[in-house]
Amino acid sequence: MSEDQQRRGSYVPIEFTPEITDQCLKQVEFYFSEFNFPYDKFLRMTAEKNDGWVPIGTIATFNRMKKFRPVEKVVETLRTSKILQVSEDGENVKRVEPLDLEGTKNARHERSKRTLAVMNFPHENVDDMTELQEKLEGFFNRLAQINQVRLRRDHSRKFNGTAIVEFNSLEESEKFLKTYSGDDAENLSFEGRKLDVFSKKQFDLQREATKGKNFSGSGQKSRSMTGHRKNMPKEDSKKEEKKEEKTEEKKEETKN
How many CB atoms lie within 10 A of CB 163? Predict the structure, then answer.
């Protein structure tokens, strides 16, 4: 077990170096960002009950925040944010400028256009989802400019080998798809395993197509989409855009 794994959940104080401070600030700012807050039901409802404020003590319990101790240092770090404000007593935090949630919802379709599904990641022996999340974020950040990575889970809440990656622009996602998808594409691999890359629409179409026949009588998946590139349907139905928007409302990863 790594030192970082041991520290998670142990609440052992750590030194807030410039690097650690930056990690802490970026993580909390992400929670309140347009990429997470509108789709994070728990965080949104907590804020709505308290005029936008969320207890810092609550945020400190999130998986990716447990390593940042003591909490007093977290408070001190958040006071330096330009988009967040901390209450005078240091107990709560909220956005300086509230998000336009309606406008954010209307932009969901545009975000989906620059989102790709990357499949076939190793997932058989994943013990620490937080560590994996950070590892995959680093993996994609080395390849392109991204906004976020969401790890999909199966019915038992375990990682199923698929990452949903939102890029910071449509051009960036199209470049990535062209580079790593198709017969003449470069191979994309992670820890020795070849990965498959699809558009979000293509991925959603396949999920919809296999929803009724991808499970055996026991309730277990009888086969996986992973690696079945030839079975992926073509993106030729405008009706799927509405289904796609509904799919985006289901948040896969928030606090891992």
Answer: 26
53 and 92 in contact (C-beta within 8 Å)? yes
DSSP state letters, 125-156 = T---HHHHHHHHHHHHHTTS-EEEEEEEE-TT
Distances in Å between the alpha carbon of 29 and those of 19, 154, 174, 251?
15, 28, 27, 18
| CA gap 158, 139 in Å, rounded | 20
Q: How many CB atoms lie within 10 A of CB 23?
A: 16
Give yes or no: residues 47 and 121 share one domain: no
The gap from C-alpha 74 to its chain's centroid, in whole angstroms, comes to 22
Single out the residue of 200, 131, 117 nearest to residue 162, CA to CA. 117
Picking from 25-29, 95-99, 114-118, 250-254, which range would have the lowest pLDDT averaged per residue?
250-254
In a domain? residue 164: yes
Q: What are phi and psi of 189, to 5 degrees?
A: -135, 160
Which of 143, 145, 151, 150 is CA-nearest to residue 167? 145
Closest CA to 250 of 217, 212, 204, 216: 204
CATH of the domain at 83: 1.10.10.10
Report DSSP letters for 218-256, one per residue: TSSBSS-STT-GGGPPPS--TTHHHHHHHHHTS---S--
pLDDT band at residue 208 under the 50/70/90 scheme: confident
- Chain segment 98-114, per-residue pLDDT in tens: 998 777 766 777 888 99
Distance, CA of 82 to CA of 177 (rounded, Å): 34
Q: Domain residues for 174?
A: 108-248
On the question of pLDDT at 129 being above 80, the answer is yes
Q: pTM for the complete prediction?
A: 0.66
Query: Mean pLDDT, to the nearest integer, of 151-171?
Result: 94
